[in-house]
Amino acid sequence: MTDLSLRMIERLAEVDRAAWDAVANPPGAAYDPFLSWDFLEALEASSSAVEETGWGPRHLLVEDSGGALLGALPLYLKGHSYGEYVFDHAWANALERAGGRYYPKLITAVPFTPATGRRVLAQDPGIARLLVDAARQAAREMNGSGWNVLFPTTAEQDQLAEAGLMARHDIQYVFDCAGYRDYEDFLAALSSRKRKALRKERKTAQQGVEIEQLSGSALTDAHWDFFFACYQDTGARKWGVPYLNRDFFRLIHERMADKVLLVIARRDGAYVASALNFIGSETLFGRYWGCLEDHDSLHFELCYHQAVDYALAHGLKRVEAGAQGAHKLARGYRPELVHSAHDIVHPGLRSAIADFLVQERQAVEAERLALEAETPYKKDL
User: Fold this and answer.
1) What gap in Å lies between CA 18 and CA 41, rounded to an integer?
2) CA distance 146 to 232
3) Domains of the chain
4) Band (381; pLDDT cuts 50, 70, 90)
5) Residue 203 above 70 pLDDT?
6) Which whole-number Å values give the CA distances from 351 to 142, 150, 348, in the listed order?
7) CB atoms < 10 A from the CB of 15, how many?
């Protein structure tokens, strides 16, 4: 390990695209579109995740003596807690009330993307540990409150816990394709009452509209323009200012249109609603929805039912529908634990958070079990 070098960069454009992708999506691993150079660099090139928006890139790289990239850690210096989907505002308030300073902090995550995936991008355990140690040290050298890893895999969560990070859990809703041949095959696994309710919901949603599933070369600028109008409308109502700009989606169209599924609805020849998904090798990731005209149950149809249709038709293993939303249960999505890991520098705050997380993990697991009991599946399965 003595011939390795570690460095920090402030622009992903400094890294060769193929070199990054070789460690981000190595052979044998499930392809994750959010870890690709195309996606992460588009966030920076479009000025969506940059210093000015409070997401200062500080990516860590491990290279050999010849400059070959052996491992990487996406890393951002944050001046706020927006766009993370793991909520630590109470921690920040507590430290600041005590006279401390919570920001800046370091985050390893995919900005604005609450999707589970690899975070420490190294196949060699020694290189992975080098990156973890470097991130922890960087938080201290930058006078930050700590280093936080958002939505790592379960295996990574265990490894980060072994390294001394505190584990936090939350719940998301996931559709497990579980060998179903098609949507009707899935419906057969439900109780009769729930099956009838979903058939009725889909019939209502599809009445008077045409629905298209678009990907790759079928996507046009006009489709993206309409989607972006939907995205802005939803973002303005939920967050005040949408995180992503039109230039980001232009870059996604140019670079990875074949990894995008846009489900779009049209009534009387005019587009009225859309839902954007990203396509992994095993998972369909639901991301954004919006409508410019209300239509009964169309949200459920475009975001959840159409996603299941696509995943089953294309042999995917699961659909991840994003953060929050217990209404997904009735559509066959099951509650699963998602993770984050936290290294807090201030000893007093760290101790208080550790005590809190013990109780929170117990409460989250109890909630998951209660939600599982509410799924629409036949109870003898």
Assistant:
1) 13
2) 33
3) 5-170+338-372 (3.40.630.30), 178-316 (3.40.630.30)
4) very low
5) yes
6) 21, 20, 5
7) 19
